[in-house]
Amino acid sequence: MERLVTSNLKLGIIAGGQLGKMLIQEASKWDVISYVMDSEKECPAASVASHYINGDRLNYEDVCSFGKMVDVLTYEIESVNTKALKKLKEEGVKVKPDPEVLELIQDKGLQKQFYEQHAIPTSPFTLFQGKEEILRAVSSKSLRFPFVQKIRKGGYDGQGVAIIETEKDLGKLLEGESLVEEKVPIAKEISVIVARNEQGEVRSFPVVEMVFDKQANLVERLTCPANISEEQEERAQSIALKLVNSLEMSGLLAVEFFIDKRGDVIVNEISPRPHNSGHHSFESVITSQFEQHLRGIMNLPLGSTQLKMPAVMINLLGEPGYEGKVKYEGLTESMAIEGVKIHLYGKKITKPFRKMGHVTVLSESLEEAVGKAEKVKNLIKVKA
Ligand code: ADP
To answer: Model-level pTM?
Structure first.
């Protein structure tokens, strides 16, 4: 008997950004009816959703009334009213991943405590009420340079993170409840996406390596497979699987790691949703991260995560200095390069460093894919 993949299953997605859009693209293969709630009518997912609902994801009433319209409710961003999600779950709506998992992940302090409780390797940390308390700890020498301050709630894409190397950086300290952790001597940043369904079946995607744009503090390029040792690959995957099992969650968990200068693999942070570092999977893996998330939240068998071809992904970011109605340059020229796959999210307005789309480059060898990605990076410009 068909359980969930039927033409009348209603899938609700809170927030309609690019992750929601790509999730719907995959859901539509199964003829699922998609509902998306966002405060912006022209959000990327609205163009592909069966139904668009206007609403504020942080508003209790909006989330509750949206949840009641659907059979399975998920979200594509962490900042959602979890009180409303918990209420919906109590009333029998299938909210996946669980609201309790989201609540834990929303708070970087609770995340770190969870790692500690489950013996997951992470950098040592202390929780602070705010800036003043951090300054007192610095004066009393109980906190030593260099360190990294992170606001416990609401940070994203490097906002809410202050790297304090010396006394001169103390002016960068942020207001609000924070965690302070040791600055890791980073050799590499990698990510592993894992999936789990209610039956406890788990799968891991191949490890990806993230190279950061220092100015924008966003991923500049990601490569799969990652250029790391087999031992590090196995270590990262086993930690990610341990995390998804300890959280007993359904759906995807993206785990970001640092590899330090000694070669140790340590967890930085986790997200319970499709992730920028998994976009390449659309073309390069047998089951994309979006399809796998759907399989996970609908309690369907998980799909193969075998890599079909080496891949490089680059984000298409708004050029600094341009804001307004978006104009793309270089798309056609890029498409002429063998193995180049372009994704535009459909955002009407560009801003400096805004994620407007991405490009995946597939090639027989990773080196060749990196070279082609460099060419594409020079060709495509997102201007206004
Ligand atoms: P966000 O959730 O906003 O993406 P992250 O925790 O990923 O924040 O931090 C953003 C970036 O800051 C990381 O990708 C990394 O380059 C740097 N960073 C974060 N924590 C540390 C740390 N403990 N040591 C050194 N660098 C760090």
So the answer is: 0.96
